[in-house]
Predict the structure of TMEM175 family protein.
Amino acid sequence: MNKTRLEAFSDGVLAIIITIMILEIKVPHGDQFTDLMPLVSKFFSYILSFIYVGIYWNNHHYLIHSLSKVNGKILWANLHLLFWLSLIPVATGWMGEHNFAKASMTLYGVVLLFSSIAYFILQRTIINSEGENSVLAKAIGKDVKGKVSTILYLVGIICSFYYEWISGVAYFVVSMLWLIPDKRIEKVFASKN
C-alpha cells in the first residue's frame, strides 16, 4: 500500500466524523432566534470537537507526508488512532446534550487523552519504520507540546469530577496550543530542499 491510499482513507474517516457531529445538531422547530438557545451547548461542544478533528487532520497530513513506505504496523497504528477519533462524536454529543456535565466532561477528556496516546503511538511507529534520523524524528524532537497536552488532559479528567469548568478550560487550552498547525515537520522538509 502506498501512503496516498492511507491518507485518503484517513481523510474519509475524519470527514465522516465531522459529518456525524454536525448531524447531532437538529434544526429547531421554531422560527425565532430564541429557539436556538437550547442548541448553544451543543454548538459549543461541536466547535471544540471540530477544532480537535481539524488539528488531527492537519497534523496527520504531516505525519503521512514524512513516510517513505507503509507497513502493517503503520496501518494498525493509524487504525488505532482513527478508532479513538471516531469516538469524538459520541463524547461531543453527550457533552452538548447535557450542558457539559461532569460525567460527559470526563468521557470527553478520556477520548481526547486516548486519541493523543494513539497519535503518539503512530508517530513512534513511523519513526521506528523510518529510522531515528528520519525527517519525522528530527521534527518531533522532544515534543514538548505533546507532553504538555497529555498533562492538561489528565488535569481535565481529574478536575471533571469536581469542577467541570476547569476541565473545559484544560481541553480548550490544548486545542489552542495545537490550533496553529505543527510546523516542525514542514520546517525540516524545507531545510532538506
